[in-house]
Amino acid sequence: MKRTALATLLVALVLWTSAPGTAQARELIVSAAASLTDAFSDMEPAFEKAHPEVDVIMNFASSGALYRQIEQGAPADVYASANPKWMNKAVQNRFVAEDDVAVFARNALVLAVPSDNPASVSSLDDLTKRSVKSIGIGTPETVPAGQYAKGALVGADLYDHLSPKMIFGESVRQVLDYLVRGEIDCGFVYRTDAVKAGKDVSIVAEVPLENPVTYPVAVVLDSASDEAARKFVAFVLGGEGRALLEARGFKAP
Fold first, then answer.
1. Does residue 172 sit in helix, strand or coil?
2. pTM of the model
3. Is-contact 201 114, C-beta < 8 A?
4. How far is CA 237 from CA 80, 243, 247, in A?
5. Which DSSP letter does residue 116 get?
6. Which residues are bridge partners to 112 per DSSP?
């Protein structure tokens, strides 16, 4: 596939961030949703210990942004999305094989507030109050957490009414950062993200969803390290990978 200038830049960035001292190892680029940052960062050294011939390079961003990178020809060996939407697009456009796609984890979407909860938010219904002036949400077009939140708010006939208050984030982790710094009154993040923030963020409600939050993973068809990529996916799906996911608050599919 012909690479665009952006893809070339992404290649340079990925290579620049690779760890020193692993030049002889086979590089494996794992493009994973931002909400997987902690769990997959745990997997990186665990997988490399079991497979010292492989140097795993993690590439975290929103699922939509990662898909666009792959579409534009950026190097990637494994793609792990935070929802089926972007994985389905990868299948439809033949960047991954449908038979290779496997769901490996579940999560929950929550409404969270800064620890001091200045706007006194305790439910979705509270978002219409005048005391709530800013609501953090991932950009629905590219951020799965934002897509889930928009779906829930549309279903509750609240989305258009609340739109003037919305502060959009480029990833769910950016929304979490806004919450930790107290820059928004409340926000929609995954339960695992809210738990990661510790005492700085409080969960006030789990958001009811029409479809559960699921994470699919697959080997990218253009992978230059197909064998290592399949080993990594097997690791994610296996007992050690599951244990590392559960330690970060993810549930089995």
1. helix
2. 0.78
3. yes
4. 12, 10, 15
5. T
6. 187, 203
